[in-house]
Amino acid sequence: MSRSGHRPFSLSRIGALSGNTFTELVRLKVFYFLLIFALLLIGNSLFMARLSFQQEFQVLKDVSLGAMSIFTSILAIVATAQLLPRDVEDRTIYTILAKPVPRYEYLIGKLGGVLLLLAFSVLAMTALFFAVLFLREHMLIAATMRETTGMRPEQIQEAVERLKASAFNAGLVPGIVIIFLKASLLAALTLFISTFATSNIFTVVVMVFIYFIGHLQSTAREYWLQEHGGGVLVKIFVAFVALIFPDLQLFNLVDDIVAGTAIPMALFAKTAVLGIVYTSVYLFFAWVSFHGKEL
After folding, report:
1. What is the per-residue DSSP string for 211-253?
2. What is the DSSP letter of 129?
3. From CA 64, how far away is CA 61, in angstroms rounded?
4. Residues 113, 25: contact at Cβ < 8 Å?
5. Residue among 239, 268, 264 at smallest CA distance from 251
6. How many domains does the chain have?
């Protein structure tokens, strides 16, 4: 307990900040626009595929998971970029920090609100995505049953099981969790940049560049190592670049999911830990930058 009688770290204060931030973000028009866009894209993917049932489910998964990944990334960047500028403009940040609220709690609460928003969005899109898969699966099963005249019961059962395996596979849920973690690290990185950025537009522009660099980093790294060898200095430089610009391709497991390949638990755990570490490191950098900033 501090001398003022207030705890130096309070989950209740962080929870209140997160809840208020989530409520503010839900009211943003951009959130509804992007959410509707993503939901429509996932829903329309049902009508974009008219191939064999294996190919149809592949297209459904590819379009839907791609939409979820892009939407959550954009939402994480756009929503987080305006948190600090809006609080400064509305002067609410002065009211909050004038109370016994440390700056690290303020940042954790703000990021927590964004993560709640991302989790809500991912759950909503996942529900629609699974509903589309379930609906299409039963439509194809009904069509298969009508076309199985003369087939033995075991052949019918095999066809139905093969169709079900094409609709749902073990990699779907882990893949969606990785999409959420990718958006989380982008939110934390955006929060860090916003602590020293001059405007939310500047933050968004910088994050767009980082987003594309992150997806191209693995290709550039392989080329750089081939051209300059694998010396110690080169590896240190590559590691430094990987810290500043996260390798977002590591979080791209959509191709394996679409192909029906189960994500190994070791790969899922490694990617999940990497996402959590990135998010924690960027949050720490945000606190370091924000700690001594004059408001």
Report:
1. HHHHHHHHHHHHHHHHHH-S-HHHHHHHHHHHHHS--GGGG--
2. H
3. 5
4. yes
5. 268
6. 1
Residue 99 lies in a domain: yes
Listed ranges 30-34, 88-92, 159-163; the one with the highest mean pLDDT: 88-92
> What is the number of residues in the chain?
295
Token output for 149: 């005249």
CA 258 to chain centre: 18
Domain contains 3: no
Q: Let me know if residue 4 belongs to a domain.
A: no
Structural domain boundaries, residue 149: 11-291
**Predicted confidence (pLDDT) per residue in 224-246, tens digit:** 666 666 566 766 776 677 677 88
In a domain, 237, yes or no: yes
List, for residues 54-89, the tens digit of each pLDDT value. 667 777 788 888 888 888 999 999 999 988 888 888
Q: Residue 158: which pLDDT band, with cuts at 50, 70 and 90?
A: low
Cα 3–Cα 6–Cα 9 angle in degrees, nearest 5: 115
What are the tokens at 175? Answer: 């893949």
